[in-house]
Design a protein that fits this description.
Family: Belongs to the autoinducer-2 exporter (AI-2E) (TC 2.A.86) family.
Keywords: Cell membrane, Membrane, Transmembrane, Transmembrane helix, Transport
GO biological process, one term: transmembrane transport
Helix content: over 70%
Number of strands: 0
GO cellular component, one term: plasma membrane
Order of helices and strands: HHHHHHHHHHHHHH
Low-confidence stretches: 379-405
Mean pLDDT: 74
Distance between the termini: 99 Å
InterPro entries: AI-2E-like
Largest sheet: none
Shape: extended
Structural class: mainly alpha
Length: 405
């Protein structure tokens, strides 16, 4: 084949290749590279933000606790500020008062715990002899305290090993205490600045927002202050009433450490809704059981009756304007908060839930509810169900066959 023939055969191939190269459908869209770069930057930014969130999770939790405490203290600080107190000294006075109450609570409970341990150690020989008498009489054995001590001497090695392990963990316990002290000082510092410089802090936030958004943010902040402060003060009042009632009952039944036990029940019952009274009441029942079964039984009856009195008489009247939440919703909120943030989440759950409920109620449109038997309660006098209205007869459509029948 000649050279001219080969060139003649290759020319159409070059034209087809050039045609395919210039075909717009085979070209890369101009927006695709920019979209790929934007996607890569978005994924990288999200990864960096998530890494920073994980690294700063402890600090963010401390800031959240500080914000909650600042919201809870601000009503008292505002009350002092309206009476010519500067916000700095007013915040310091309120924080010192709250810290004093916390120290008193821990001191009283600590003294009760030490006293119970000492009493238990003093009663241990008599309890051991009584237990041995019961075992010997029931199972026809002949154990004696000296025999029991000789049998227990074989486990002394395990006791020494456990003691050495506890001594080895002293350094770890000391570091944990130092970490708790540092976190407490950090929370106190942030709380002081958030509360003392509250107006300046809110002004700085609103300065970067449009006017309409400023109004919504300030409204949400006001609701949060009202609900959080109301939650703390209403719970404090309920705790005071609960502690006083249990102190009277424990004193009448001659249960030791009545003041400390009443304070324990009063505080614990108000920050764990619905079941807090029973959880806090377990300790007074156990202490009363040392005195005998009847005092423990009467304490259990009193705790149960007081819980019903508080749920249906006291709490609706005290928390009607501060924290109007159904007990089941409140208990579920505490469980959800504990699952998300642990103990701090359980403490923050109720005021956060009440604030969200009030804030959303301002924007949820409500309608008139139609009458229906499922929406009516039973008659309290006759305990009979209301009459069920019959369904209206179907109206035939115009032009149907029933018109002529």
């Amino acid at each position: 084949m000649s050279t001219s023939d080969s060139r003649r055969q290759q020319r159409p191939v070059r034209k087809d290749a050039a045609r395919r190269h210039t075909d717009p459908r085979s070209q890369i869209p101009p927006w695709l590279p920019r979209a790929m770069v934007l996607a890569v930057w978005t994924v990288a930014a999200f990864g960096i933000a998530w890494w920073m969130f994980v690294q700063l999770q402890g600090l963010l939790l401390l800031l959240l606790i500080s914000l909650f405490l600042a919201l809870a203290l601000e009503p008292a600080v505002n009350w002092l500020n309206r009476r010519r107190w500067p916000r700095g000294p007013a915040t310091g006075a309120v924080m010192l008062a709250a810290f004093g109450v916390l120290v008193l609570f821990l001191t009283v409970l600590g003294s009760m715990l030490v006293g119970q341990v000492v009493s238990f150690v003093e009663e241990l020989p008599a309890m051991t002899r009584a237990a041995l008498r019961w075992v010997n009489g029931t199972f026809n054995t002949s154990f004696s305290p000296t025999t029991l001590l000789s049998e227990l001497s074989g486990v002394s090695g395990f006791v020494e090993q456990y003691a050495s392990s506890v001594a080895g963990n002293v350094v770890g316990a000391g570091s944990t205490v130092l970490a708790l002290l540092f976190n407490g000082l950090t929370v106190a510092l942030f709380t002081f600045y958030l509360c003392a410089d509250g107006p300046r802090f809110r002004r700085a936030i609103c300065s970067v927002l449009p006017p309409r958004t400023q109004r919504e943010v300030l409204r949400a902040w006001e609701i949060a202050i009202h609900k959080t402060g109301g939650y703390i003060y209403s719970r404090a009042l309920l705790a005071l009433i609960c502690a006083a009632a249990h102190y009277v009952a424990l004193t009448v039944l001659d249960v030791p450490f009545a003041f400390a036990l009443a304070l324990w029940v009063g505080v614990l019952s108000q920050f764990i809704p619905t079941v807090g009274t029973y959880i806090g009441g377990a300790l007074p029942v156990l202490v009363a059981l040392i005195e005998g079964p009847w005092p423990a039984l009467w304490i259990l009856v009193f705790i149960t009756v007081y819980q019903q009195f508080e749920n249906y008489v006291l709490q609706p009247r005290i928390t009607a304007k501060t924290l109007d939440m159904h007990p089941a919703v409140a208990f579920a909120s505490v469980l959800a908060g504990a699952a998300i943030l642990g103990a701090p989440g359980a403490l923050l759950a109720l005021p956060v839930g009440a604030s969200l409920q009030t804030f959303l109620s301002l924007y949820i449109r409500r309608y008139k509810v139609e009458e229906h038997p499922l929406l009516d309660d039973l008659d309290p006098e006759t305990d009979e169900e209301p009459d069920v209205p019959t369904a209206p007869a179907a109206v035939p459509e115009s032009g149907s066959d029933t018109d002529g029948k």
